[in-house]
Every structure is written in structure tokens, then in C-alpha cells.
Amino acid sequence: MTSAYLELIRIRFLMMLAYRVNYYSGILVYAINIGAYYFTWKAIYGNAETLAGFTAGQMTTYVAVSWMARAFYFNNLDREIANEIRDGSVAVQMTRPYNYLLVKMMQGFGEGIFRLALFMVPGMILACLIFPVQLPTDPVRWALFFVMIWFSFLINSQLNILTGLFAFFVENNEGMMRMKRVAVDLLSGVIVPMAFFPRWFESVLQWTPFPAITYLPSSVFTGRMSGAEAWQALLVQAVWFAVLIVPILAMWRASRRRLFVQGG
Amino acid sequence: MNGWSFHLSLFKEYVGNYLKTKLTYRADFWVEVMSDLLFSAMNLVFIFVVFQHTPSLAGWSRAEVVFVYGYFMIPYGVFGTFFNLWNFGERYIAKGEMDRVLTRPAHSLAQVLLENVDPPSMIGSFVGLAIMISAWSTLGLPFHLYDPFVLLIFVAGSVLIYAGIYMTLAAISFYSDAPTGIIPLMFNIQSYGRYPVQIYNKGIRFLLTWVLPFAFVGVYPASFFLQSHGDWTMPLLTPIVGIVFWTIGLTIWNRGVKRYRGAGS
Fold first, then answer.
1. How far is residue A39's CA from residue B201's CA, in Å, rounded to a whole number?
2. Distance between B114 CA and the closest CA of chain A, angstroms
3. A139 to chain B, closest Cα gap in Å
4. A residues 184-213 near B, CB within 8 Å?
5. Residue A187 in 3-state DSSP?
6. Can you give the residue ranges of every domain in chain A?
7. Is the CB of residue A51 less than 8 Å away from at least one CB of chain B?
8. What's the rounded Cα separation, in Å, for the pair A253 and A97?
9. What confidence tens digit (pLDDT) does each residue in A3-33 have?
């Protein structure tokens, strides 16, 4: 059974590889976005040395690494699931001797490995050439960062699966999927690090899974969090990963009871 | 019947058809409106959050940056409504629909644009106008009788710039297998126009002014109304740059259509 799941990872990876040309321009798009925010943050800092605990140099690194982490963890599992529910092919998938949600997760892994190797890594090299990014020198920090973006990927995929499964309950969950995308970009810290939000909002945000996607790994990478704080950030991610399994399973159970497929 | 009124009557018909199909799926219409606005809302949240940490952005106050953003939304909405060319290469060239377009009596570009008119984008323009007006009163700017006319001309100029650039990109598919990534690339570059150009370095500023003049879809024309940034040279260039880029785009399009030999098969 495990080999079947591994095979799914391999197939998705190869499929992504076939369309790799589409991602070359994606690297440029990300570089352009990093540029837009790099210049904006530079102007925001002006003569200030630190804002919300970030030095200007850390902020540049933060912007670059956050966008590149996004290049890795981003996927369209929500749209894929919603489409399969809407066109009814999910029914066929359910009759097969594997777990549909695990299949989706494996396909996500395949895409993730592709994105890491052919999108994030070259993108990060490009970003380091263009912008004054300060890479950490401590190998432990690097290792911790890679474990953390792995959790970012898991948590983001879990949110995608949750959003996708909503297609079982509403006729059109397009709006919800777009809202989720904006919410993840804004609240996870790609656009604004959590520390910049007003104090009351920050304390609300701490109780959501969003900061675990970008803010925590990027803060560790830039050196804003280190030592015990960094390990605690990893723990927060692991807890969110575990907690999010509950609503997914609950929704999956409820949706199997609801499913009826039109036509034939 | 002359060309203009002919195309105008076609426009009415196509919008009528659009409304009929969309009224069947009302929820989709609002979903599209909402997601357009969400993106702007995210950018506005960004502006409000960062201005809690700094009084000014390269000499621009919060209300001024919001004002510029409000202006930025107006031509963008108009452009999104009338120049919906995102999937031109795929739908019309790769799938061969261009052959059908060429048999129609309307100008080929007009026909393509009419088939893709997208009214929900227009809501963004109205929201942008509202944001601009509210920032206008926050800043206590004087109101001149000529301001609405100037605004109209500037918005027209900005729309022509967008139109010219995206027409050129769409027309590339007539000459070669269009690289699919180029439109998303442009889409991301244009977001540089929503903030004051003063924050960028010289090279990017030059690029945004003369090569891909996205500074003219936001900050330059908007600064006409802001007294503290009152150099009028750049704002007044907006309609001229608009006409130049529109002419370039239309020329490339028309030549491309002449070269077009169909998708074969």
C-alpha cells in the first residue's frame, strides 16, 4: 500500500516536470513581487533602524524568504478537490482501495518536491543575487528552517483540503477558495509580518493557524527568533498540524454521507 | 450607420447577453466582484498597517498613498471590464477561434473585446472613486470645477496605457508561439504603479515612466490633485503617453492580424 502512495508522489512530480517551463516565468514573477515589497519596506523603514522588532536588513531577508517559502508550500489542492467533487469523479475515487485525502496529500507532496527543487531553490539564488539578503550561517538554523517549511506545507495543504471539501456542502465554493487565498497571504505573514499588526489583532492572530505557515519559519530564518523561541515555534506548527486533522476527518465523514452524484 | 454607432450597438447587445447569462448564476457574479475587491482590500490593509509604524513613505502621507491607490483602482477596473485579453493566445490562436472573428463585420479587436467584456470589474472602479473622494476630504484638498474633467481625461489616458501594453502582448501570439508566462509577468510589474515611484531606484523609475509606463496608471496622474506633489509635467503627460502606447498596440495588432494565417488543421 505504501508503494502505491509513493508512486502517486512520483507521478505528480513527473507531471510537474513536464510543465517546468511554466515555472521559469514563475521565478521571475516571484522576484518581481519580492522587489515590489523590498522597495516598499525600504521606504517604510526610511531612517528607522528597527520596526516591530525587525531590523531593515532582517526585513529584506524576511520578504525574500517568505515569498520563496510560498513558492514551495503553495498548491491548488483546494481547487483540485472542488473540481473533482463538482464533476462527480470523486465518487469513482472513493470506490478505489485507497484513502482519497491521503491521495491528495501525496499528490501535494509530489508537487511540493518539484516546487522545492525547481522553483524555490533557484528563486532563492536569484533573490540573493538581486537583493541584499543575509543568509544565516548557523547550520542548525538552516536545518530547523527546512523542517519548519515542511510543516508550512502540511498546514497550508490541510487548509486547502478543508476549503476544497466545502464543495460538498455548497454549490459554489469559488468565493471561499479565493477568500482563503487572500487570507493566507495576508495573515500568514507574506504581505505583512504578524508583529506589524496592531497589538489586539496580533493576539487574535496567534490563535489561528495562519502565522504557522509563513511568519514562524521566516522569523526563525531571519534570526528574529532563536534559541528556545525557535524551537517553540516548531512546536506550535506541530500542534497546528495535529489539531487540523480533526476538522478534516469530521468534514470528510459528514461529506461522505452527503455525497450524491448527478447524471451518469 | 458609421463605425462608432455600429460598434456601440454591438456593445449593447453583448452586454445584454452577458447580463442574461450572469443573471442565471447570480452568485457567481458577486463572487467575482468580491474576489476583485478582496485583493484591493488586502493592499489597503497593508497600507494601513505599515503606516502605524511610519509617518510617511518617501515623503507621502498615509492619506496620500490611499488617494493614489484609489486612483489606481479606477482605470484598472475600466481596463478589466473592456480589455479582458488574458486568455487570448490560448482561446483565439491555439484553439483557432480567430478564424471566426475575422469573418465578422466588426473590427477584429473590437469583436474579441466585445466577446470578453467583463462588467464586474467595473465595481472596483467605483470603489476606487469612493476611496479617492474620502481621501480627498481627509486631505482637505480644494475642489476645482475642472477636476472631474481632468480626472476623466487622466483615467482615459491610463486605460489606454494598459490597453496598449496588453494589446501588444496579445498580438505577440500572431507572430510566434506566445510564451504563456509573459502576461502574469506584466500583471505583477503593473502593481509597482500603485505606490509612489519615489520609493524605487532610478532604473526602475525610468522603466516605469518610459518603457512600461505603469507609473502613469497610478501615481503620476493622481499627484496632479495633490498639492504637495504639485509638479504638473508628469500628470499632464498621462493622456499623451496613453495615446502613444495605444497607437503602438493597435498598429502591432493590425499588422499581426494581416500576418495571421490560421491555426491549420
1. 8
2. 25
3. 33
4. 185-186, 191-192, 196-198
5. helix
6. 2-258
7. yes
8. 17
9. 888 999 999 999 998 888 778 888 888 999 9
